[in-house]
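Thread amino acids onto this structure.
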């Protein structure tokens, strides 16, 4: 079967590492063109270079003494960081001698409370990822009154007052997803793909808006040239995984069930799409993108259910936030210590001065999925869990 034969690379590596007791002797699936008609599969081996990040201190600063607060909430099933990212940031800060206060609150109220406690304790910089804009605005206003700098982590607090943002480049992510989807389908001889786009919460999340913009920068010229068709486009409200499957079902029905490729704005949305397709045995028959995926997304790539993901390495984002925070603690202009900030717009506060460190994601397909693991981008525990899940799904042991 197609999914069974797609499992070779990472499953074999796991066995070699002694992590899991499952095996497979198959090779990568190939499109069936015996009838002269290209058959779409999700498995994609478009080559893409992968490089692990190398932590580097802000130039010329060395060890800096100061206190930084890190508040990254606990979340699950959403396209946003998690408490694990807070640990990455704290570790990067501590490596440069900074005292770190860490909180992973589970509600907006707890987020505000944690921030106020840190401000009262004497932090001079806050790295925050609020659960909603309202709590973010409240915290940033309190930090302003105390004379503290705030760095928005991973996404902008719209309407807030933070002067800094550290995030992955959402617009570039959208371009990479669309370009790789088109390349994967072209590799199979699909010249005019029928595409469904599942956006994030574009009504309120500027990152989702930028990501969608990047997708259309690639697909719209192809549509105009008659080389692609956007069948349907839908947004997953609040990035909630429970809303992803219904949104895709509606879009798929509106497209008459006809689709060659799906651009899914996040790994969680891609997982929901796979679940819907699996009901009719079509998982692996539709080219599918994701973004921000961890071990789960890698598993889907290995099993041939997902074509690619834009991998956002949390270590790179943590390192960038730490370097910027250390510069601010030291009272330095970020540019003077080798940090290049790009201007960034807040749709709710035109003219608000924001300097952003926008990081590139990395395209991952079956061609380079093993490099992600070799580079330490997922932990051994995460990898083993994903492989065991793949083994169960494939009926291997």
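Threaded sequence (397 positions):
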């Amino acid at each position: 079967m197609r999914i069974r034969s797609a499992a070779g690379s990472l499953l074999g590596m796991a066995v070699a590492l002694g992590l899991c007791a499952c095996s497979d002797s198959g090779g990568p699936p190939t499109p069936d063109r015996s009838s002269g008609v290209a058959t779409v599969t999700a498995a994609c081996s478009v080559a893409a270079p992968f490089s692990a990040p190398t932590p580097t201190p802000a130039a010329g600063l060395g060890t800096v003494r100061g206190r930084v607060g890190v508040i990254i909430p606990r979340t699950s099933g959403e396209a946003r960081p998690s408490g694990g990212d807070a640990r990455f940031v704290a570790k990067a800060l501590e490596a440069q001698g900074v005292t770190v206060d860490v909180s992973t609150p589970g509600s907006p109220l707890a987020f505000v409370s944690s921030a106020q406690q840190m401000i009262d304790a004497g932090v001079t910089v806050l790295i925050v990822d609020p659960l909603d804009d309202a709590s973010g605005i409240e915290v940033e206003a309190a930090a302003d009154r105390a004379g503290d700098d705030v760095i928005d982590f991973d996404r902008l607090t719209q309407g807030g007052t933070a002067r800094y943002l550290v995030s992955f480049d959402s617009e570039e992510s959208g371009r990479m997803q669309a370009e790789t989807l088109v390349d994967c389908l072209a590799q199979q001889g699909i010249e005019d793909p029928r595409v469904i786009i599942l956006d994030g919460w574009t009504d309120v999340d500027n990152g989702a808006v930028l990501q969608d913009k990047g997708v259309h920068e690639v697909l719209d010229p192809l549509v105009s040239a008659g080389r692609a068709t956007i069948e349907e486009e839908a947004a997953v409200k609040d990035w909630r995984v429970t809303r992803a499957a219904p949104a895709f079902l509606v879009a798929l029905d509106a497209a008459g069930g006809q689709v060659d490729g799906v651009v899914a704005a996040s790994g969680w949305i891609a997982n929901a799409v796979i679940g819907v397709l699996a009901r009719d045995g079509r998982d692996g028959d539709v080219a599918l993108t994701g973004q921000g995926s961890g071990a789960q997304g890698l598993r889907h790539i290995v099993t041939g259910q997902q074509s690619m993901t834009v991998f956002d390495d949390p270590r790179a984002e943590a390192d960038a936030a730490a370097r910027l925070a250390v510069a601010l603690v030291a009272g330095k202009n970020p540019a003077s210590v080798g940090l290049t900030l790009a201007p960034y717009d807040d749709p709710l506060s035109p003219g608000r001065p924001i300097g952003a460190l926008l990081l590139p994601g990395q395209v991952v397909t079956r061609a380079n999925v093993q490099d992600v693991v070799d580079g330490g981008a997922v932990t051994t525990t995460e990898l083993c869990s994903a492989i065991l899940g793949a083994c169960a799904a494939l009926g291997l042991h």
